[in-house]
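Box 4.2: Ligand-aware structure prediction
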Amino acid sequence: MKTCPAGPGVVDKDITTLYQMLEQLRRIQSEALDELSKVESLRELEFWRVRYLGKKSALIQILRSLATLPAEERPRTGMQANKVKNSLESGLREKEELLQQAVVAPHLDVQRLDVTLPGRPFPSGGLHPVTKALDEICSVFRNMGFQVVEGPEVEWEYYNFEALNIPQHHPARDRFATLWIDADGRKDSRLLRTHTSPMQIRFMERERPPIRMIAPGRVYRYEATDATHESVFFMVEGLAVDRSITMADLKGTLLEFCRCLFGDERQVRFRCDYFPFVEPGMEVAIQCLVCDGDGCRLCSHSGWIEILGAGMVHPDVLARVGIDPTVYSGFAFGLGVERIPMLRYGIDDIRLFYSNDLRFLKQF
Ligand code: PHE
C-alpha cells in the first residue's frame, strides 16, 4: 500500500479508518461521561471504571492497538485517545471525592457547601437598660391596677406649668430650666416638657375618678450635664384620684414599688419637699446601692439617692380640671427612670446611657 501513496483507494481507506477511529473515541467519551453522571455510589463507580477504563474497555483496546496503526494515523489517534482517557480519569477522581464526602455528610449538597467552614455569626440585639427599667416599672404599677398612658413631649406652657400651680413668675419655674419652642412669655408658648406632670392634667381633663394611671416618657431640661444629670432623660408620672385617698396610700404604694425593685431590705426615706402642685409634698430616696449608705460619687457622699418627687394632689389642681376637691383626693409622684438601673448595676455616670457605646450597652 505504501508503495503507491497517491492511489485514491488507499488514501480513502486510511481516511475512513482514521475518521472512524476518532468518531469511536468521541462516542466512547460522551457515553462514558453520560454514564458517569448517573453513578450514585462508590460501587457503581467501580463498575463504571472497569467498563470504560478497564483492561478490556474499548478505550484501552484502542490505545493498545495504536502500535499497529499506520504511522500517519498514530499521532492523531494517540493524542485523541489520551485526551479521552485523561478526561475519563479526572471525571472518575472527582466523582469519587464527591461520593466519599456524601458518605460523611449525606444530607448536604456537598458540591457547594464546605461543612468545615465556621458558621456566620447571627447578630442578636438587646433592649436598652433604660427601656428595660421602663418595662419593669410599668409592670409593677400595672400589677397594682394602674393604667399606662403616654402624652406629647412638645407641650403647652399651660399643661407644663400653669395648670400645675406654677404661674409665670412663680419661683418654682427656676427648678425647671426650660427649653422653649416659642417666644418666652406668650400665653400660648410651647416648650419641651420638663417633667411628666402635665399628663396629670391631660388625663384628669379626660377621665373622671377613680383614676390610677402612670405616664412614662422623655423629659427635657436646659441644664449642664454631669454624672447625675442629663438634659434629656426619662420620667414616670403616677396619679391616683378617688374618694378618701390619703398619704398612707401614697406611702404604701411607693414602698411596695421600692421593694419590688430593690428588695425588702433596702431602706426607703420619705422627707418633706415642695412642689406647687401637691400639698403636702415629699421626696423619696433609697439607700445608695453602690456604697450601702457610706457615701460615694453616685450619692454625692450622702448615702441616699433621691428617686421620686411625690405628694397629695393640690385641691386647686383638682378644681381646675373640674374634680371636686371636697369629694375627691389623690396622690401623684414623678420618678426618674435612669436612677433605677444606675442603682441596680452601680453605674456612676448617667451619661453612659446615651453615649451609644456598645461596650457599655452590651452588658445588660
Ligand atoms: N414633676 C416633679 C419633678 O419633675 C416630680 C413630681 C411629680 C412631684 C408628681 C410631685 C408629684 O420633679
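In the box above, the bound molecule is phenylalanine. The chain has two domains: 9-104, 129-361.
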